[in-house]
Amino acid sequence: MTRIGQAIILHRAGDREEARNRLSELWHEIGPHGDAFHRCTLAHYLADTQDDPHDELDWDLRALEAAEGSVTERSADTGPVLGTTNVADSPCPRHSLVALRAFFPALHLNLAADYAGLDRPADARAQLLRARTWANALADGEYRQGLKEAIKRLESRIDGAPGRSP
Q: Out of 1.25.40.10, 3.30.530.20, 3.30.980.10, 3.40.50.150, which CATH number does the structure's domain 2-159 have?
């Protein structure tokens, strides 16, 4: 996570290419069977470093796939993990499970933005619905409120797009 964080700092400082290179190296180092939280985080931030909107969508889809795969595996092993109250029974550390749960609304929101940018409003709306559902499942707080506001802004942008039927 430290190396992921360092690459994110580079990206936020404006060195998009170096951030993309470092994150790509980490992606290959972790591989397809690496920790799902790390893969999800890497793909999520790799999406932000892409120049082509189709590539950004591909990376956001990989991030969601990593998160969903992790949840599905844990659900099969231990029952419905997302509803679990006894995290000690979960096969993953508490921070990874909680972080993955909290990541879902942002992942769907990013996909909605990707689809909106690619002029695919129906796909964008479907992802906004998923983002809203996941956001509603979060505890009240700044993160949840920020997600809900971002969902509304994107929804307004999609609804106000030229060529939209009333």
A: 1.25.40.10
